[in-house]
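Lab meeting, item 3. Inverse folding demo.
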């Protein structure tokens, strides 16, 4: 069965770092565009970053210069390195993979930035 699984979330102090991982199972991630989204309770899900099948990254203005998205096709994974974290980065982070009409979502991993 095809699915995505996120990991790497946790509690971190402001200014700290976390690396989120998105692992694909049951399908090859190579040509998919993969994105990271985040959501707070009662709020709309917002795009954080995405990387095309060709490896071109795109970032939301709120995370530019702090977050880096990357992909390792050999491991069938995508990563989100998050540095200089702020309390407003606190959210449930989701991984999404999409190509043409195929789309997959993970279950999410919680990131909490607090002192």
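The presenter then showed the designed sequence:
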């Amino acid at each position: 069965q095809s699915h995505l699984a996120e990991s790497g979330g946790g509690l971190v102090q402001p200014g700290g770092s976390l690396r989120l991982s998105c692992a694909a199972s049951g399908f090859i991630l190579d040509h998919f565009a993969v994105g990271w989204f985040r959501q707070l309770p009662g709020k709309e899900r917002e795009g954080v970053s995405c990387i095309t099948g060709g490896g071109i990254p795109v970032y939301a203005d709120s995370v530019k210069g702090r977050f880096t998205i990357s992909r390792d096709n050999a491991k069938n994974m995508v990563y989100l390195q998050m540095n200089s974290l702020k309390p407003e980065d606190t959210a449930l982070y989701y991984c999404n993979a999409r190509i043409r009409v195929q789309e997959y979502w993970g279950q999410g991993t919680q990131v909490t930035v607090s002192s």
